[in-house]
Amino acid sequence: MAETITIRASDGSGEFTAYCAMPASGSGPGVLCIQEVFGVNHAMRDIAEYWAGQGYVAVAPDLFWRQEPGVDITDQTDEEWAKAFELYGGFDADKGIDDLKATAAHMRAMAGCNGKVGTVGFCLGGKLAYMLACRADLDANVGYYGVGIEEMLDEAANISAPLMLHIAEEDGFVPKEAQAAVRDGLAGNAMAEVHSYPGMDHAFARIGGKPYDEENAALANGRTAALFERALKG
Q1: 3-state per-residue secondary structure call for the chain
Q2: Distance (Å, rounded) from C-alpha 226 to C-alpha 85?
Q3: How far is the CA of 131 from the CAs of 25, 135, 170, in angstroms?
Q4: What average pLDDT does the chain have?
Q5: Cβ neighbours of residue 127 under 8 Å, at least 6 residues apart?
Q6: pLDDT tens string 184-219
Q7: Is the pTM of this model over 0.85?
Q8: C-alpha span between 233 and 125 (Å, rounded)
Q9: 96 pLDDT tier (thresholds 50, 70, 90)
Q10: What pLDDT does residue 208 have?
């Protein structure tokens, strides 16, 4: 069962919506699904539905609401890419983190949530998942092909819950030097687990996207599911 829920921003600036998919049992741990630069689109709703199918309360908040509520675009046209980059350029990551914290607090207070919440983010959301690992008290955080993490490694010492990052080795948005910096920067952190996927490009786990690779997507998703099983259901 899915519905649109409303969350109040912690800074008092208004309210934003989120797509909420509930497990068949009606209760479980929470998985906070963090969008790419295309908004809470079909792909993100499918991700929420996937985690609901695995027994989690899955919520995907609209993080572009401060610029334009209800963004729902794809990667299929030049016009949509241009809009995505415009929204990304205008996005305030610190405000985004505030909105994600507000979403997590809302989820923990939901009648169907057991109080534990993990995150799974993609692209922009992958970076935000890393930032949450450094700045929030969530129970687990997972980032797929996060962009710009190498610029924030000075915060890694603050990580106190399991963090898993999935890196595409041929990512056109994350140079190999940046990938190496992330691996090296987290190598000594007992809370961090970094997986690299040879030959894979950005968005290799997005069903329907051009870079999608079923085998590697299944491998990454299996690793994520195992982490959530330990950290959220254990």
Answers
A1: CEEEEEEECCCCCCEEEEEEECCCCCCEEEEEEECCCCECCHHHHHHHHHHHHCCCEEEEECCCCCCCCCCECCCCCHHHHHHHHHHHHCCCHHHHHHHHHHHHHHHHHCCCEEEEEEEEEECHHHHHHHHHHHHCCCCEEEEECCCCHHHHHHHHHHCCCCEEEEEECCCCCCCHHHHHHHHHHHCCCCCEEEEEECCCCCCCCCCCCCCCCHHHHHHHHHHHHHHHHHHHHC
A2: 33
A3: 31, 6, 23
A4: 97
A5: 93, 121, 143, 146, 147, 148, 149, 152
A6: 999 999 999 999 999 999 999 999 888 999 999 999
A7: yes
A8: 23
A9: very high
A10: 86
pLDDT at residue 71 above 90? yes
CATH number for the segment(s) 2-233: 3.40.50.1820
Q: What are the domain boundaries of the chain?
A: 2-233
**Residues assigned a catalytic role:** 171, 202
